[in-house]
Every structure is written in structure tokens, then in C-alpha cells.
Amino acid sequence: MEKKFSSSKGLSKSLMFEWVVRRILEEQYVVNTVDQTLNGFDLKTVDNINIEIKYTTRSNLLSFVNSLKFFIETHPNYALERIIFITSSICEDVFSNQNKSDEVKSLNIISLENLIYLCKDNDNLLSQLKMCLNFSTENIKPIPLDENVQKLLQPSKKENFKKVENIDYYNKLISIPHGRNHFSQYEKFCEDFIKTIFQDNIEDPIPQKINNQGLYRFDLVAALKSEAKSFWKFIYDKYNSCFILFDCKNYTGTIEQEEIYSTERYLYNNALRNVGIILSRKGASLHAKIACQGILKEHGKLILVLDDNDMKELEILYKNNKKGIDYPTPSDFLFDKAKDFLLNLDK
Description:
Elements: H1 13-28, E1 31-33, E2 43-45, E3 50-54, H2 61-74, H3 77-80, E4 83-87, H4 91-94, H5 102-105, E5 108-110, H6 112-118, H7 123-131, H8 147-153, H9 169-174, H10 183-197, E6 202-212, E7 215-224, H11 230-238, E8 243-249, H12 257-264, E9 275-280, H13 286-299, E10 302-306, H14 308-322, H15 330-343
Helix pairs in contact: 1-7, 11-15, 12-13
């Protein structure tokens, strides 16, 4: 049975990264796991190209570069020409002035930009890749594989490879009926939507299901990645939030003030969680908006309410940015929402 992707704490990000990289390669190439005690590498292609996967954080980047230099010292040139190194770092970091080495630059390296390019047509794999990282990927653009790397992998390419179509989230959303009877369907949709649309800036979204006095409740709590941009940096700096709460409500009408207060109870300053986003079908009523204002003024907690139209706009921005179009990002959209809310705050 194929091993399923897991975000459990027992599985380190390093192992997660190795697992996702293999999945990415298997989409387009024939690769095999090898016995590391005999071979020393992680994967091998059908024509014996060795693949070494290195999960690299910025704190251990020098260690990664030194390991590459060790390979150079211990392997002849003809062997190095048949090794591909895969890293979770970006090119700029690997080849920075501090680590600059013509010998290292001559190696066959697949960087994070290349991995994003390889899985850019598969939202599921792209999301899983970004969840392995603890820094924002919002401004990282996909880059095709180096020409030498392409040549090495070409004999292993699956000729009948078919791209996985992007999910049409908005059409999927509007096909879900409103109301309590369809809560589970809506909740699963919201979980997938959040993990995909905000994958650049959040990690480890954890579903929390609570039966509170007979009332069923569903939400997600996610951690902010380091080096967060726009909205995420704003809530980190101004609202002391390292985490964010997403609350999903498949109501037939607008969200009322009771639902706002219900969400507010799960925001805690001591838990570094002072910001919540409610995903709803028809947005907030006037009284609910007034409740959001009161909670901000009295307790310093920020709650934003999104509706179906907002989620449509988020999907459009996400897909345009994937194509490399210079549009505002989904996090820019949230930042604009927050600024609009604050500018219209009653005195």
C-alpha cells in the first residue's frame, strides 16, 4: 500500500520533504528507491542517475554547501556528472557570495524554484511541498530545470505523463448547498482551499472539531511561516499573532453577532493567536460587523469575515500568480480587507 502524506508531528519536515520530492519526480519520471547502505543515495533513475535529496534550512545552509564540496573531493568528475542534488533552498542562497564556489555551481542541482516549477500544475503536490517549508514562498518564482539536469532525466521521462488539472474551487464551492446538512462537505472544502490558497505563508493547519454544549464546531489553526509578507507580517507585528484561526460556517444566511462572539472565544493573546478569519457563504450582517469592531476595540482581536465572492477572488489571484502574472497575491487581498475594516472603524 502506498504511504500517505502526513503532517503529524512525529514525521519531521526533512522526511516530509524527501517523501514529497519523490512524489514530484514520480509524476514525470521513473525513479526507484535504493538501499542507502549499499548505494549511499536516496533515489536512482532507470538509467542509473543517482539522486541525493537534502532538506536544507537557512540555518544549516553552510553545512549543505560543505557536503557538496565533500562530494566534489571524494568523487571523480565522471561520477559527479551523473549525480543530481535536490535541495529545499533557493538558488540565491546556495550560490550566495558567502558560499560561492565555481565547483559547486558546476554540480547538477535542483533547487526549490525548480521543484515548484515541476509541480506547478498539480495543486496537491505544490501544497504538500510548501508545507515542508518554514519560510514564506510568496515571492519565489518557478524556474525550469537546468539544461544539463533535463538531459540527465530525459531517458527516465514518462512519455504518457498527463498533467493534473487545477481544481476549480469556486465552481466546487457553489455546488455545495448551504445549511447544516452539508456542513461536512463545506468544511472539507474549506480545509483544502485554505491549505492551497495560503500555502505560501502558513504551515501545519490543524483541524479542530469541538462539540461545545451540543453545538458542532469546526476550525483550523495554522502557524505563520517565517519571513511572512503583507497581511501575515502585519498580523505578526501588530497583533502579536504567530498563529491564525480559520472558522468555517456553512450558514444559509449572513453571520450574526453570536457567531462572531463564538469565534472570539478561541482567540487568546497568551497563545499568540489574536486573529481569526471566518469563511462563510453570505458574509456578516450589520450587527456582526459591529461585534467585530467592538471585539477589536475592547480586546485587540481582529476578526475578518469572507463570503463566497471573496473566495472566488482569492482563487483568481492565486491562479494568476501561479502563471507568473504580476497581480496582487491572496495575502494582499486579505491585507486590503483588514485595512478597509480598520479605516471604517467607529470612533
